[in-house]
Amino acid sequence: MKDEMIAMILAGGQGTRLGVLTKSIAKPAVPFGGRYRIIDFTLSNCANSNIHKVGIITQYQPLELNGHIANGEAWGFNASGGGTTILQPYSSTDGEKWFKGTSNAIYQNIAYIDSINPEYVLILSGDHIYKMDYAKMLDFHKEKGASLTVAVKPVPMEEANRFGIMNTDQKDRIVEFEEKPEQPQSNLASMGIYIFNWQTLRKYLIEDQDKENQLEDFGKHVIPLYLANGEACYAYAFDGYWKDVGTIASLWEANMEILNQDHPLYHSNPDWRVYSNNPVLPPQVVTDHAAIYDSFVTDGCYVSGEIHHSILSENVKVGLDSQITDSVIMANARIGASCRIEYAIIGENARIADGAMVIGTERDIAVVGFGDQIERKN
Predict the structure, then answer these.
(1) What is the largest distance, in Å, between two alpha-carbon atoms of the chain?
(2) Which residue positions does the secretion signal occupy (predicted)?
(3) According to the annotation, is 136 in a ligand binding site?
(4) Known binder of ligand: residue 15?
(5) Average pLDDT over residues 188-211
(6) Using CB atoms within 10 A of its CB, is residue 272 exposed (0-12), middle (13-18) or buried (19+)?
(7) Could you tell me if 236 and 151 are in contact, meaning their C-beta atoms sit under 8 angstroms apart?
(8) Going from the N-terminus, what domains does the chain have, and what CATH number goes with each?
(9) CA–CA separation, 169 vs 233, rounded Å?
(10) In the chain, pLDDT over 90 holds for what percent of residues?
(11) Strand pairing partners for 324?
(12) Among 259, 268, 179, which Cα is nearest to 224's?
């Protein structure tokens, strides 16, 4: 049966602004919130929106991401008629290999999309934290008779110059796109979420390859071309919680925010579950010497120290008399005895020696990378 709409998740980003946290893994695979990875939110949105076929475009350090997603069983994509497909760069007859940009990645996977032959293609990023019903966005797209619908998030006007801004008329039709304008005319920031009529987008991508070969990015190239050619482009306003966790500061901040039980992710739709591919681990162990305040401590953890307003991912070990405050400790990290960790992100498999300190500030978060070791300073 023909699928009305499939999703294509762009998950190949290197995430250079996350520094040592992404030296061995792609940004969408970075852990978040104790038991998730960043891409879990986008995948869960697809599952909850009844999108059954999902193509996941990877490029940079995909091994851990591929293993996490597997066949999509954790999100229910392995059911009859559904599925996830990992789409990686390959050498083709026309010499293409690495994806040059977001729309070029879609062009190089036309054969996959054609094999499903959807009417609509939903383009998503794999590195945002949010809950969104894509079915409602598709309804909007159909009602407007759109060729392209762009999800937008109203932002404070004083911050609008940091984003790609969509200027619209009174009927939500996009009349102009401005990339990080010095004097923005509106505050409707692009979320990097698009619904395209597939045959129209396909025609543009193929024609471009036969001519200029310039349509590499949706924001920089495809949207301006659609507007110039008079295509029906509309802005779909989303007013829920949405966070781009592309920097150390924003990743730490988003983790700290979800410690608040009144966080909008908990209440925007309590039936909208966030799924993940979690390992099966024994229960946490909290010794007589431990004290835990306002924190998340997940399965497999062993705690013999004090934890204040922090998140411990699975299988973290915290030694005797150690103190962890306002920090994120990722999976399989080992914190020795008598350590102090404040305003920090400790990467997966990191080792903090007995008596060592990792101290940051709210404005300058300290970071220990994947598998790094921190020794005590004498």
Answers:
(1) 71
(2) none
(3) no
(4) no
(5) 91
(6) middle
(7) yes
(8) 5-259 (3.90.550.10), 285-374 (2.160.10.10)
(9) 11
(10) 63
(11) 307, 341
(12) 179
Of 5-14, 96-105, 285-294, 328-337, the range with the lowest mean pLDDT is 96-105
Asked if residue 317 belongs to a known ligand binding site, the reply is: no
CA distance 141 to 124: 16
Give the C-alpha separation, 99 to 106, whole Å.
9
Structure tokens at 299: 């399965």
- The 8-class DSSP code of residue 300 comes to T
Which spans in the chain are helix H?
A: 39-48, 63-69, 102-107, 110-116, 134-144, 198-210, 223-228, 248-257, 264-267
Tokens read off for 58? 């990877």
Backbone angles phi and psi of 293, in degrees to 5: -130, 125
Both tokens assigned to 148: 């392209």
> CA angle, corner 346, sides to 63 and 9, nearest 5?
35
**At CB < 8 A and 24+ separation, what contacts does 296-299 make?**
296/33, 296/34, 296/259, 297/34, 298/34, 298/35, 299/35
CA–CA separation, 14 vs 185, rounded Å? 32
- Per the structure block, which two tokens stand in for 352? 């903090």
pLDDT band at 162 (very low <50, low <70, confident <90, very high): confident
Q: 376: which 2 tokens?
A: 């005590």
What pLDDT does residue 2 have?
59
Whether 49 has a binding-site annotation, put simply, is: no
pLDDT (mean) for 14-30: 81
Residue that has been written with the tokens 């309590």 in this structure: 270
pLDDT for the residue 65: 83
Q: Which residues pair with 354 in a beta bridge?
A: none
Closest CA to 46 of 82, 87, 86: 82
Task: Report whether 315 contacts 281 (CB < 8 A).
Answer: yes
What is the amino acid identity at position 33?
G
Residue pair 69/86 in contact by the 8 Å Cβ criterion? yes
- Cα–chain-centroid distance for residue 363? 23
At CA 353, angle to CA 350 and CA 356, rounded to 5? 105
